[in-house]
Predict the structure of FMN-binding glutamate synthase family protein.
Amino acid sequence: MSTPYSRFTPLGLSFLLAALSLVGLVLSAWFWVPALIFGALGVVGIFDLIQTRRAVLRNYPILGHMRYMFESIRPEIRQYLIESDQDEEPFSRELRTIVYQRAKNVEDKRPFGTRMRVYDSGYQWLTHSVRPKHITDTNFRIDIGGPDCKQPYSASIYNISAMSFGALSSNAIEALNRGAKAGKFAHDTGEGGISRYHRAGGGDLIYEVGSGYFGCRDASGNFSPEKFAETAADPQVKMIEIKLSQGAKPGHGGMLPAAKISPEIAEARGVPMGVDCISPASHSAFSTPLEMMHFIAQLRELSGGKPVGFKLCIGHRREFMCMVKAMLETGITPDFIVVDGKEGGTGAAPLEFANHMGMPLVEGLTFAHNTLRGAGLRERIKIGASGKLVTAFDIARVLALGADWANSARGFMFAIGCIQAQACHTNRCPVGVATQDKTRARALVVPDKAERVANFHGNTMKALAEMTGAAGLSHPGGFLPHHFLMREKDGEMVVADEVYPYMPEGFLLREDDERFGYLKRWRRARAAAFEPIDSGV
């Protein structure tokens, strides 16, 4: 039977064994080794008893450290020993594996049928044709640029989503951009500005302009038209994206402490060394929907007519409608809108934001798509989608729900070696992807990983072509909601266009369709301000 004080046994044994080891020195000098080991454990145990921060260690000296050790490796234990292939935390092993295989250009086929529970609620599938088509050209592209755009961009329908230098290492950024160059697709800079590593690869860039205006700010942190024009003139810059919010932490600003600002980060962002770098929660260049449209027009003019759009995670749906009403009132429309789902997550975020703020991609995408249709603007504005889109099925699904192209951040992170250690915010990424520690970043070999980025993109496009052909289509842009079915609950299936239908063109202008609450919000939205006409959202 254990005694009430048996928890102190390891401490007592440490001192006893240390003492016996000292006695053993008369027999051999090698007893210094156990004497030092057990003596050190005893000292640790005494410190555990007298420290005041951790109750576990005060009650379980020495032994309590095992608890903290196992807690520190809990994600790895779950990932390698406990999780099934379908457990999403946040990406399943099955999804990570298919990215690794396609990036390495190795066999990605599976034997013995699906492992998914096809009769469970939430299962989705694609309808196929008895007359499939063979698609040879997998370089699927979309032209982005509205009537006011002088330099439209022919973009791949699958591109690298926004990830900043500073969040990712220099080697990671360069590998991504070199891969984008080789695969002929675009690389979003993230809001951290254009670094020398973005330029080193020579790949097409989407320059993201966030609330910190990095790369286009004056000494006070306000937008600088002159610096923007200089940055946007770079031939590598193909489009400009105004970031309103991101899926990981919509409505949340950020700060990069002065201690973490390296000369390279300061160069890319246009900020001074030794000063905290603030990203406000909202933009200072505009505060109303009308001002936002004029800002879009200003950026398009300053860039020489390159496509200009914005990215957001849908929050108050009425606020998005305010923007659309401002488009109608001013006649100024963005060339594109990127809808980021709240499941997006490369940026470190507070738990409450990551779990409970923002709209998931499917609902956000269908809302934005249908609002533009209702206002008669959908044909002028292209829509991109981002949020856990790593397979051909993911891309086909968002194209069917209203997107023109898809972006992926974590998919391309896996392609350059990310193992989902979820240590992105600690600066201790084990594979050199999300760190500014140069000794860790050197593990990521740029030429090898750049090739994997191009492979992943190319093989995913081939898989998408096979799915498209199997559905009897000639291009992925032909997918519509009726090509997809899903289970709402066990044993019952529903066609996607019953749940996420395309609303009629111009229905908001005519005010003739009351479904899904669109008209209620439309009537309360106004172009002059983001605030509602009444107290609702």
In short: The radius of gyration is 27 Å. The mean pLDDT is 90. The CA atoms of residues 47 and 240 lie 57 Å apart. Residues 446-470 form the longest helix (25 residues).
